[in-house]
Amino acid sequence: DAGITQSPRHKVTETGTPVTLRCHQTENHRYMYWYRQDPGHGLRLIHYSYGVKDTDKGEVSDGYSVSRSKTEDFLLTLESATSSQTSVYFCAISENTSGDTQYFGPGTRLTVL
Amino acid sequence: GNSVTQMEGPVTLSEEAFLTINCTYTATGYPSLFWYVQYPGEGLQLLLKATKADDKGSNKGFEATYRKETTSFHLEKGSVQVSDSAVYFCALRGGSYIPTFGRGTSLIVHP
Question: Are B107 and B21 in contact (CB under 8 A)?
Fold first, then answer.
């Protein structure tokens, strides 16, 4: 199994508070991704990174920011959490772009009250 | 842009039945095609993949053939087990950083 961990695995927070989710990999893969998974919507890309300090927006980036200061860590921040951000968040990594497999972390279940 | 369409679920089968989950795609160029599986409470994991036309990916009794003429990558298994109950995602990846996923198909297998 690819070495990907996510922390925390579960979090309950209140509306308006900032939240940071961490993805850590031990594979030295260049590309990292944050997705959210909601019933009826499948997987939706929030942000991705194609190298240290190189990030870009996905299809549902509003209300989220990311940072990648080291190859192994990719942080997702909800600047001011809202109930619509209650979801399961997955991190993924891949070594290359074209034709390459993505490896997923175990997920973080976030509940915003 | 790229897109993936897969059949909606849930698909409900009895153990040892034949499984087909349809997947069709739209893409420019020659993408690689994937099936991922997600077991309850876990992240997605690669089930199989194919990187060029007419390639067949296979794993754990599952198969899918890359059909460029019909832009399809249907997932099949001859005899499903209860342990195959999961959500299956079809995906493609071309030359960009961003893969494209289908919405997932839930499979429920009854004993």
Answer: yes
User: What CA dihedral angle connects B97, A44, A30 and B25, to 10 degrees?
Assistant: -40
Q: Which of B36, B49, B95 comes nearest A97 by C-beta? A: B95
**Does B102 contact A50 at a Cβ distance shorter than 8 Å?**
no
Residues of B in contact with A40 (CB under 8 A): 103
3-state helix, strand, coil in chain B (%, to 5): 5, 50, 45
Q: How confident is the model over B63-101, as pLDDT tens digits?
A: 999 999 999 999 999 999 999 999 999 999 887 778 899
pLDDT tier, A47 (very low <50, low <70, confident <90, very high otherwise): very high
C-beta atoms of A107 and B104 within 8 A: no
- Nearest residue of chain A to residue B40 (CA atoms): A106
